[in-house]
């Protein structure tokens, strides 16, 4: 459940005092067991339910044999493979230890303290932490009544000196998407001096694989102020390896690299990502399984009477408002970890068929309690 990532609290005399920026930052929650609770179904963090394939595990084991040496300075081997996959030159790709690290780099290089960063809200909980940590100001644009991004309101917010706009599509935690033509019109209309960070952590669940691979190059050909973020943590099943990347104009990639630490990717993580890239069929099967369970969840929960947002990601959003915490506790008692957004809703990740069954049973008993 939600808890602070770190406690700033009272530092006391005689110890260094962190920047006052930190006192304002929210914590990052985690859908995981508290002490003494073992969850049978971990549906709180949008992870893949299946472990890495034998080929990925073998590649990691092989990389370990060379782990006394530094890896690529900038993860060039993976960047080249990704450039290939997306039909872009290698200098339009930068890799990072998770896409949140890349987001942090981009915010630091494009924002000075006090600058405005626009984002639809509710969205990904890492945004306020990263933006606030850089001393920039997050401007939250409310979702519409159906939990969708409001393109007109985003555009209006961007028109008054926005340095950066972060668009999460499909949006976490609601799973809703802007239709391709709506998104295209928005990208066209946002002023050219505003950096658009398009966070596509869940793109793989929303479209055909060929489109998912091709869409960044198509968009980047039209928008030099666009940075597309992708991750290996969700559909690619490697959350524990921490691999993310950015596809963008050369100038954006160069700026992001300017603040990247050397050797951003462990050799094992790069090897895992390369091996996963070579097994697109595994990813396709994982996505198909997730979509199947999402359909069962959506239908089952809707039939029970829950308001379920129309999701195109590997999770569903239950807009239960003030009941979010009580529902989370109820599911937790049934051995199901979910992500609670206090006062707003509950996000439930797709898992195995058994997890869906357990969820629907527990949701029914919640309603008849
Ligand atoms: C999970 C997620 C990410 C991925 O973060 P990593 O650091 O790559 O694990 C990025 N953005 C959103 C919106 C997410 O939900």
UniProtKB/TrEMBL annotation:
Reactions that this protein is recorded to catalyse: L-histidinol phosphate + 2-oxoglutarate = 3-(imidazol-4-yl)-2-oxopropyl phosphate + L-glutamate
Pathway: Amino-acid biosynthesis; L-histidine biosynthesis; L-histidine from 5-phospho-alpha-D-ribose 1-diphosphate: step 7/9
Segments traversing the membrane: none
Keyword tags: Amino-acid biosynthesis, Aminotransferase, Histidine biosynthesis, Pyridoxal phosphate, Transferase
SUPFAM superfamilies in the cross-refs: PLP-dependent transferases
GO molecular function: transaminase activity
EC number: 2.6.1.9
Annotated coiled-coil segments of the chain: none
This protein's record includes keyword Amino-acid biosynthesis: yes
Aminotransferase class I/classII large domain ranges (all copies): 43-359
Residue list for modification N6-(pyridoxal phosphate)lysine: 234
Cofactor(s) needed for function: pyridoxal 5'-phosphate
Family in the record: Belongs to the class-II pyridoxal-phosphate-dependent aminotransferase family. Histidinol-phosphate aminotransferase subfamily.
Quaternary structure, from the entry: Homodimer.
Protein name: Histidinol-phosphate aminotransferase
Gene it is expressed from: hisC
């Amino acid at each position: 459940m939600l808890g602070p990532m770190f406690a700033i609290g009272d530092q006391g005399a005689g110890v260094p005092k962190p920047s006052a920026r930190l006192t304002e930052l929210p914590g990052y929650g985690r859908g995981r067991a508290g002490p003494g609770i073992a969850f049978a179904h971990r549906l709180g963090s949008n992870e893949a339910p299946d472990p890495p394939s034998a080929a990925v595990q073998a590649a990691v084991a092989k990389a370990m044999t060379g782990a006394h040496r530094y890896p690529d300075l900038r993860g060039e081997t993976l960047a080249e493979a990704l450039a290939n996959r997306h039909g872009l030159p290698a200098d339009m790709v930068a890799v990072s230890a998770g896409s949140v690290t890349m987001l942090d780099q981009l915010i630091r290089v494009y924002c000075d303290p006090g600058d405005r960063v626009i984002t639809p809200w509710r969205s990904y909980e890492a945004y306020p932490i990263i933006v606030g940590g850089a001393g920039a100001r997050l401007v939250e644009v409310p979702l519409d009544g159906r939990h969708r991004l409001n393109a007109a309101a985003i555009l209006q917010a961007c028109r008054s000196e926005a340095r950066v706009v972060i668009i999460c599509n499909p949006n976490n935690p609601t799973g809703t998407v802007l239709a391709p033509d709506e998104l295209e019109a928005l990208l066209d209309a946002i002023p050219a001096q505003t950096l658009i960070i398009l966070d596509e952590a869940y793109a793989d669940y929303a479209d055909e694989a060929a489109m998912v691979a091709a869409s960044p190059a198509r968009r980047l050909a039209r928008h030099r102020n666009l940075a597309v973020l992708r991750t290996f943590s969700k559909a690619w099943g490697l959350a524990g390896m921490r691999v993310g990347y950015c596809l963008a104009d050369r100038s954006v990639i160069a700026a992001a690299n300017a603040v990247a630490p050397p050797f951003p990717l462990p050799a094992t993580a790069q090897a895992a990502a390369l091996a996963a890239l070579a097994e697109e069929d595994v990813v396709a099967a994982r996505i198909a399984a997730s979509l199947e369970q999402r359909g069962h969840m959506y239908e089952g929960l809707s039939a029970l009477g829950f308001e379920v947002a129309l999701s195109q990601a590997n999770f569903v959003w239950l807009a239960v408002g003030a009941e979010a915490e009580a529902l989370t506790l109820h599911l937790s008692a049934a051995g199901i970890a979910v992500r609670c957004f206090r006062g707003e809703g509950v996000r439930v990740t797709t898992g195995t068929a058994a997890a869906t069954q357990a969820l629907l049973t527990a949701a029914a008993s919640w309603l008849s309690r």
